[in-house]
Amino acid sequence: MWERFIEPMKPVSHPQVFANDRFLYQVKWDGVRMLSYIEKGQVTLINKNLKDKTLQFPELSALSNLLKEKRAVLDGELVVLKDGRPHFPSILRRNFGSIPTQINLLSKRLPVIYMIFDLIILGDRDLRREPLEIRTSLLNDCVNWQEPFHVVESFADGAKLFAAVKESDLEGVVAKRKSSPYTEGKKHNDWLKIKYRKRRSFVIGGFTSKQNRINALVIGLFDHNADPAGLYYVGRAGTGLKEQQWDLLSAELPKLKTERSPFINLKASQLKEAVFIEPVLTAEIEYAELTDNLYIRAPVIIGFSPVSPEECHF
Q1: Model's pTM, two decimal places?
Q2: Is the domain of 163 the same as that of 221?
Q3: CATH number, domain with residue 282
Q4: Please, which residues have CB within 8 angstroms of residue 49's CB and are 6 or more apart in sequence?
Q5: Are 208 and 216 in contact (CB under 8 A)?
Q6: Are residues 109 and 251 in the same domain?
Q7: Interatomic CA distance for residues 234 and 253, integer angstroms
């Protein structure tokens, strides 16, 4: 039995990629952080909030048969791929499944991949004070690697990796000090996350205003695979446009006003300060990320987009 669960070591935000031969660089996978505790043939999955998620991912019980030791704690990220790239809404559907029949169905429709990047305990050996280089070396050798389990590859050139991440439209890069111990939480400067600010088109489903002048767009994305499928609210964007552009929006958007919210997950009463419009226009927006709850973070409006609303989807 495990005396307590370990708080994951969390990377600290860093503004840009850098070159330093004391660091290694890994892809930051866009998924759900998960520690796996393996003992006596049983696998227990604990998320970053120390909640048990074993029920949600039954296929990962196979990890106990692939481990060369009888006991271990592994750290990694669960992802679901769509068209070869992590699809965050899909891993959230897996993560929040609660009914056994639904979980069984989702495990077949949305299979997960476990991207493992650290080894915390192996057998009776606590590795938290060991340097990262030793932990990753042991990790490579302690598992008979096969689907859906993968060891995360490390790279020496952070700039090249970040360029490849941008080209593939992935989330970012984590720079890890080779000598770093496994420190719970964020009280360290050993793991640094460098995120790629993304651009995409969003559907404009409403706006907020002050003194009859629009000051933010209410935006969303379609999810054609969700149940129910439709337009989902992801937040508001209120920076990036020039004064004359806001003036133009203030004159034109009210003409598209509708009484009902176009968003499946947002009723008009839930955002009383908003005026909703027919979802026929789109805007190109730069942003840091979509959070765990699928809300946009740090959005900046670039301008109107020629992309049709139906093409703006997760």
Answers
A1: 0.80
A2: no
A3: 2.40.50.140
A4: none
A5: yes
A6: no
A7: 19
| Phi, then psi, of 248 in degrees rounded to 5 | -65, -45
In a domain, residue 16? The reply is yes
Confidence (pLDDT) at 224: 87
Q: What is the DSSP string of 214-276?
A: EEEEEEEEEESSSSS-EEEEEEEE--S--HHHHHHHHHHGGGGB-SS-S-TT--GGGSTTEEE
Dihedral sign from CA coordinates of 172, 178, 180, 182? positive
How many domains are there within the chain? 2
CATH of the domain at 23: 3.30.470.30
305: β partners: none
Q: Taking the mean position of all CA atoms in its chain, how far away is CA 42? A: 27
Q: What does the block give as tokens for 3?
A: 């005396």
Helix (H, G, I), strand (E, B) or coil at 60: helix
Structural domain harbouring 229: 198-311
In a domain? residue 24: yes
- Long-range contacts, stretch 99-102, CB < 8 angstroms, 24+ apart: 100/55
Residues 74 and 83: their CA atoms lie apart, in Å, by 27
Span 196-230, pLDDT tens digits? 989 999 999 999 999 999 999 999 999 988 888 89
